[in-house]
Write a structure and sequence with these properties.
Helix content: 10-25%
Number of helices: 3
Largest sheet: 6 strands, mixed
Bound molecules: FE2/S2 (inorganic) cluster
CATH class of the largest domain: Alpha Beta
Distance between the termini: 60 Å
Length: 166
């Protein structure tokens, strides 16, 4: 077996093989990170940003190459200024991942809202209605209301008359 890496995800200590992606390490710990564009059988593409999480790494003393310690003896963890995609970021030793913070929740709301701006929103008549990851994740993590003003929507005449029912 290859080298194992130990990290902490939402206060749970997890050990996974080196090279494992955060999203898969979290799954092993029973923590679900929402994804759209990630599938375990495909190369990660990191395009939808739904899996954003906070990632911290141990601070290493450049002179000694050893981790810098806090007053209580625990390793000092430095969190990055931006969220990272859990589906493209491999785990590293001593990493600390937070998936349930306010910042992460706001990012998820924003990403869902952004994705819905280019989606037809035809859930009531869509064949996938009820079995749709976008619908499910919108219910779970979305903003709950839209900033769009429906009365401003343009209603242009159809190019072809489709009848009264369509
Ligand atoms: S799941 Fe799409 S960017 Fe990670």
């Amino acid at each position: 077996m290859g080298k194992m890496v130990t990290l902490t995800i939402d206060d749970q200590v997890v050990s996974v093989p080196q090279g494992t992606l955060i999203v898969d390490a979290a799954k092993k710990a029973g923590i679900d990170i929402p994804v759209f564009c990630y599938h375990p059988k495909m190369e990660p593409v990191g395009m939808c940003r739904m899996c954003l999480v906070e990632v911290g790494r141990p601070v290493i003393d450049r002179a000694t190459g050893q981790p810098v310690l806090e007053a209580d003896g625990s390793p000092k963890i430095q969190f990055g200024p931006k969220l990272e995609t859990a589906c493209t970021t491999p785990v590293s030793e001593g990493m600390v991942v937070r998936t349930q913070t306010q910042v992460v929740a706001e990012a998820r709301r924003g990403i869902i809202e952004f994705l819905l701006t280019s989606h037809p929103l035809d859930c009531p008549i869509c064949d996938k209605g009820g079995e749709c990851p976008l619908q499910n994740l919108t219910m779970a993590y979305g903003p709950g209301e839209s900033r769009f003003r429906y009365e401003d929507k343009m209603h242009l005449a159809k190019h072809l008359p489709l009848g009264e029912l369509i």
